[in-house]
Structure formats: C-alpha cells, structure tokens
Amino acid sequence: MPFLSRLCRWASERPHEPAVAVGRDSLDWEELLERSGALLRGVPDGGYSVLRQGNSLDFITRWVAGVAGERRCAVLDTGLPEAQYAQVLAELERHWGRPAPLSSGGADASGSLRETVVEHRDAGQPAVLDDGAPDSLFLLALTSGTSSLPKAIVRTRRSWEASFEASTAFFGLGPEDVTLAPGPLTSGLGLYALSECLHAGSAFRTLTSFDVGDVHDAIEHDGVTRLVLVPAMLRLLAERGIAAGADPGGLRSVVVAGAKLDARTLEATRRWAPAAVVYEYYGAQELSFVSGTRHLPGVPAADEAEFTSVGVPFPGVELAILDAEGRALPDGETGSIAVRSAMVSQGYLWGDDGHAFTRRGDWCTVHDQGRVVDGNLHFLGRASDMVNAAGLNVYPQEIERALASLPGVESAFVTGLDDGLRGQRLVAAVRMGHGGVGAGQLRMALADLLDSRKLPQEYYELRELPLTGRGKPSRALLREWITAGDPRTPRLRP
C-alpha cells in the first residue's frame, strides 16, 4: 500500500506526534506502526483480510496491517445485510481462496470486532510493514447494491499512489493539518481520507459515530483544520453551528463529496466558517477523482441556478463525453462521462454485467451522463435514473438539487412513475424543516430555476426517508411507497 513507507518515515522522524484518533482514543506515529506490525507477527505475506467493523483504533491498525506487503483487504460496510455478507464471503473464497486467521487481536470498545483473516502462502517469508508491488491489488470495495449481490471493485496500489499525489496537491494537504472525517471509515470517503493523511503525514481524527455536538467540540478544541464529509453532514454542522454560535476554530478547509454541494449548504458553510476554502469533487468508486471545484472565501459563487456543474477535470485526469458507440462528442452535447487517468480501478472481481464500468480503449466510464460547457463538467445523473417525460430526457438529480436549494427543504427525492399519456410523469417528495408549504408554492419556486418541462407534476411529503438497509437513497422504494399510497409519503395539498 503506498502509504506504508511514508508511515515508517513519520514514525522515525516524528514518533510521538499525534497520528490518528477516534473520539478520545489516540495513537502517535510510533504507536500506530508498532500496533499494526504486531498484528503480522508470525503471519506470512500475501492473502487477504476482511474488515467489517465500526470506527475504532482497532479498525485503523487492521487496515494498515491488512494492506502491508502484497496483502489485500476487503472493506465491508457494517450495515451490509447478513445474507449479503455470507454471499460476499463465499465469493471471496471462490476467487481468492480460503482465508485463515491473521491474529487474535482484541475487541474494540463497542465489542464489534470482526475477525480479520489472511490466506497463508509462504510461511517462510517475514511479515513487515512495507509497500507491495505497484501493480498488485490491495483493496476490494462493494458497490451500493440493495437486494442483489453488490459488485466488487478492486484496486491496485499504483492507482491510489496516483490519487494521493493529485489530491494532496489539489486540497493543499500537508503535515501541519489536522483532518476530521466524522463519517464511517468503511465508506470510500472515510477510508481514503484516513489513508491520504497517513501518506501526507497529517494527523487524522474521526468519531465512533456522527454527532453534531461532538464534531463542533472537536473542531473548537482539538486543533482541526480540515473537514472531510458529505453535504448532508456539512449542512447540519453549518446551520446548527450558526444557530448555536459554535466556534469554527482554526478550520481552513472543507472537502465535500458523495453528492453535489447545493447553494444553501455552501452559503451556510461560508457564514459559519468564513475563512475556510470549500472543496467539492465528483468521482466514482470505479474511476476515483473525475472533477473538482474550489470555493474561495469572499469570492461570490457562480450562478447558483446552475445546479449541474461539478467543476473542471481533476489534476491528472483527461475528460471526454462519449456517445453510445464510444465516439467523442463536442462541447455542449450530452453523453457518457469518460476519463483517462492513472487513478482508475482495475474493474470488478465479480458482478461485471457489461452495463456499469466500461473500458473503451484508454477511456473508462460508469455511464454517468453529462456534458462539458466552457471547460466545466456538468453531471446530469446515471443513465439508469433518467426519466422520459413526454419525450424529454430528465435527470432527477438536477431537480433534486433545485428543490434542496429552496428555503425550508431538508431533503428531496425525484423519480418517474408510469404514465399512459406521457410515458412517465415526474413526481417529487420532500421533507420540510417547517410545515405549511404546499405543492403550488414548491412549483412556483421551481419555475424560477428550471425549464418548465422539468417541473414535477405531483408533490409528496416525506415522513421517512426512502433508504435501503445500507442507508442508501432508493428511488425504487420511493416509487413503491407512492404507488401503494403508503402513509410515509402523503400527497401534498395543491
């Protein structure tokens, strides 16, 4: 893994400086190196480990040990249903062989430790914390499947080495920073932020679970200079921080990913932490970074009515828009977003149906739809999410972002329902921060932001968010609720 040589360097040069912390528990660089190395005593190189547990120091040390040398680590969401977990273990054994224990270890404070395992290949080879061959695999992550077996994405060490070089430069990350990533370490965002900090020699902090008060406290009292999180978390922190007068401390930068940063969240962040640079980036697990944007303090935002822009190509990324035959399209035309970079994954260990991650020569795509205008990439949505309303192709994400920018709207979901006249009709479901808003008011507010043909025909209240068992938004579930007249989605008055 391309941070282990760096970790050894930090442990040698700065042994007693803070390295990682989870809540009030912490390790310095020397302790992190020693505890991770202890998990490899008597264990040969090679094989794979399975990591499925909540945020803890034990998670971090097992991640470091699990990717040492030529080892591979499968990082699985703790919310993965047990039936899917059993399927994943069976697929791992089918592709990578039968696992065997890595070390006994101890349970973390929550008692949620899952055994980490390794396949023995060469008992005579000593176990050390070093970086394996650049082209060797080190990480398996799952796509966000629902009831079926999720696809398994695999990465080489070289892909993350290239990613570290690009991201630390783009975000300006250095050893003087203290990064707080309050989300789960099993997520792609959290795991990358941890590893990026180990590579850069920057102190990393997280929490056992997300709590607004705990995050504000850490920012104010623990020297946090940098936040890494999803927009929904940022909105809560910023809006409640403004209301409570929470001190943003020395916060200098905020990195946001996982969804488009809406205008309301950006404005709240600027009011709460006016000195912070806000970075947002768009990417995919299979592709890594695709594009990015910097929102500088004191610089007016671009036209906030443009809800689709996701910035310029990320450093080291070449960008193209391809048609269905893989031909490059001119600026302004819509097609599949494709990239050419050293950061792209190897693809899928299993689950490749030919409709998701696709290689077209050197170009790679997951078939997200978009266009390039004046050098800026505009992300419209997944091809599978597209709604054909009266012959017009509409992407729900654009309407959701417009709704989320309206005062009082906390969450918004848009989907299409079968319609004998239109083919599909657009419907929206919203969770409001206060009551009394009707469909007519939402429609009138959206009319100033969107093409009239993209306005939803029906509006529903969200009394519960339509989430899968893994906590992912589900438009399919929303359609089920609306079609069945479920009380969780009553229709809004006109």
From TrEMBL:
Task: State if Ligase is listed as a keyword.
Answer: yes
Q: Which PROSITE patterns match?
A: AMP_BINDING
InterPro entries xref list: AMP-bd_C, AMP-bd_C_sf, AMP-binding_CS, AMP-dep_synth/lig_dom, ANL_N_sf
Q: Does the keyword Ligase apply?
A: yes
Give start and end of each AMP-dependent synthetase/ligase domain. 116-349
Pfam families tied to this protein: AMP-binding (PF00501), AMP-binding_C (PF13193)
Taking every annotated instance into account, which residue ranges of this chain make up the domain AMP-binding enzyme C-terminal?
A: 398-472
Question: Which superkingdom?
Answer: Bacteria
Which keywords are on file for this protein? Ligase
CDD domains according to UniProt: AFD_class_I
Q: Which family does it belong to?
A: Belongs to the ATP-dependent AMP-binding enzyme family.
Could you identify this protein by its name?
A: Class I adenylate-forming enzyme family protein
